[in-house]
């Protein structure tokens, strides 16, 4: 049952308005004058929450590479004994009503709010609270997910499941604050006429980790790729793959018979899009422990998740992508920090000492999916500032950071803009096209268990 305007009844959270939420700091422009070459800022030098504990200085973590799995180990979590030193506190806007600020330097996983806030509601988003986030123990780390169950279910008529992965520095709450997917989950069918209306929507919370190249904070681990190794024979050691597996299997089991296992989808934004691709390409063909598989994936602003990540002399990338027939709707902006094409990448990198991260060429990545991955099911979408489909923007119309009065030429701001029409910056709603793509791409009948 949908609950409106409810506060979480948690020991850590008291009731009250929370208007301090802001959008995720996704795809941050590394070339800004206030930011160092390693992506760190002066503000991110120490924790804002001391509690009287002398934990010593934060720890710098470096990674190596191996030929077959990328990074030499999974990303390390931020814990009191090994705090993260390079977290910009601005993305961590999940302020609690009891005045306790979450501590990105030492919390393994933030506790998200599973609700819209006043600012989102005033902007035109859905007013809803889905209650307390669900907790999953993954190798001794408490992980959290927001789970929304559509109303009006009917026995014997299962509905689809959409799993949302937020961007770098973001929160599971972003699905309520930055998108309209929670509203769509109420009555939008994910199938042809006759399919029951509504779908299950699950928004996952990334861990705070020591990220490669000083990208500390909420970060998905698509860099430790043991499940793609030629010698892989067992359970993956990647904690985020284990987490997504566990949540999907648990939701399907908890709502037994009500979740359509032909229609399990991933939607990812920025770093979450990279994780959705990384996960979906293996789980489309190789099922979870409970036998569940991903039918299709939609991403916005995702770079190539299989490329070099660590600052080493070796390459942490996979030379050849895994083959898969996974249906993918791959969306970038016509002006984007995940550059629309090679010419735009060259233009955006010109004149700055800090280049965009490896894999930031959408044109090259889509070609890799089609050729190396032998995937004929990739739909490339290029959206302009108003969410219409357009060609790539020219060098004269796209900058890493444009003037404040020219937001439609600002690659960084456009990268952070969702694809619905809420707010004054857009006038076309692309979310229905996203959901149409998912609805049109269930698992083939002969592949369903």
Tell me briefly what this model is.
17% of the residues lie in helices and 14% in strands. The protein contains nine helices and 13 strands.
Characteristic terms for this protein:
14% strand, 3-stranded antiparallel beta sheet, single chain, 449 residues, 8-stranded mixed beta sheet, Rossmann fold, globular, alpha/beta, disordered N terminus
Return the domain count.
1
Largest sheet: 8 strands, mixed
CATH class: Alpha Beta
- From the spread of the alpha carbons, the general shape counts as globular
Specify the helix fraction band. 10-25%
Rg, Cα atoms, Å: 21 Å
Main-sheet strand order equals 4-5-7-6-10-11-12-13
The name CATH uses for the topology is Rossmann fold
CATH superfamily: Alpha/Beta hydrolase fold, catalytic domain
Please give the number of β-strands: 13
SS class: alpha/beta
Could you list the spans in which at least 5 consecutive residues all have pLDDT below 50? 1-52, 89-101
Number of helices: 9
CATH architecture level-2 label: 3-Layer(aba) Sandwich
What does it look like?
The protein is an alpha/beta fold and 449 residues long. It has a single domain, classed as 3-Layer(aba) Sandwich (Rossmann fold). It is built from 9 helices and 13 strands. The protein has helices spanning 118-123, 174-177, 181-187, 239-254, 271-283, 342-349, 362-371, 411-415, 431-439; strands spanning 65-66, 70-71, 76-77, 134-138, 141-148, 159-165, 200-204, 208-210, 217-218, 259-269, 296-300, 328-333, 378-383. Strand 8 and strand 9 form a beta hairpin. It starts with 64 loop residues before the first strand and ends in a 10-residue tail after the last helix. 52% of the residues are buried.
């Amino acid at each position: 049952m949908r609950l409106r305007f409810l506060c979480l009844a948690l020991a850590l959270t008291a009731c009250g308005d929370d208007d301090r939420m802001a959008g995720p700091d996704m795809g941050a422009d590394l070339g800004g004058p206030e930011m160092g070459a390693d992506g760190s800022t002066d503000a991110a030098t120490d924790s804002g929450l001391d509690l009287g504990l002398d934990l010593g200085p934060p720890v710098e973590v470096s990674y190596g590479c191996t030929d077959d799995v990328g990074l030499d180990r999974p990303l390390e979590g931020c814990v009191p004994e090994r705090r993260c030193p390079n977290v910009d506190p601005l993305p961590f806007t999940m302020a609690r009503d009891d005045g306790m600020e979450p501590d990105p330097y030492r919390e393994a996983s933030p506790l998200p709010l599973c609700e819209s806030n006043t600012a989102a509601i005033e902007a035109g988003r859905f007013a809803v609270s889905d209650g307390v986030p669900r907790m999953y123990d993954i190798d001794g780390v408490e992980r959290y997910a927001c789970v929304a169950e559509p109303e009006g279910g009917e026995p014997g008529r299962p509905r689809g499941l959409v799993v949302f992965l937020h961007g770098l520095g973001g929160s599971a709450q972003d699905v309520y604050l930055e998108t309209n997917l929670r509203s769509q989950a109420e009555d939008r069918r994910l199938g042809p006429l006759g399919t029951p209306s509504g779908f299950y929507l699950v928004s996952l919370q990334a861990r705070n980790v020591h990220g490669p190249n000083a990208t500390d904070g909420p970060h998905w681990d698509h860099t430790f790729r043991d499940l793609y190794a030629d010698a892989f024979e067992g359970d993956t050691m990647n904690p985020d793959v284990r987490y997504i597996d566990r949540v999907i299997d648990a939701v399907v089991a908890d709502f037994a018979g009500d979740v359509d296992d032909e229609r399990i989808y991933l939607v990812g934004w920025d770093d979450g899009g990279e994780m959705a691709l990384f996960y979906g390409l293996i789980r489309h063909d190789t099922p979870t422990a409970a036998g569940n598989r991903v039918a299709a994936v939609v991403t916005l602003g995702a770079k190539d998740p299989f490329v070099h990540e660590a600052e080493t002399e070796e390459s942490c990338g996979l030379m050849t992508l895994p083959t898969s027939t996974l249906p993918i709707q791959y969306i970038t902006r016509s002006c984007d920090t995940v550059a629309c094409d090679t010419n735009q990448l060259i233009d955006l990198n010109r004149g700055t000492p800090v280049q965009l991260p490896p894999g930031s060429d959408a044109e090259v990545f889509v070609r890799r999916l089609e050729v190396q991955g032998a995937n004929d099911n990739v739909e490339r979408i290029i959206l302009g500032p108003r969410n219409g489909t357009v060609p790539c923007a020219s060098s004269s119309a796209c900058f890493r950071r444009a003037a404040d009065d020219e937001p439609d030429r600002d690659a960084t701001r456009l990268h952070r803009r969702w694809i619905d029409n809420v707010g004054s910056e857009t006038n076309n709603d692309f979310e229905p096209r996203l959901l149409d793509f998912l609805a049109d791409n269930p698992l083939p009948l002969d592949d369903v268990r």
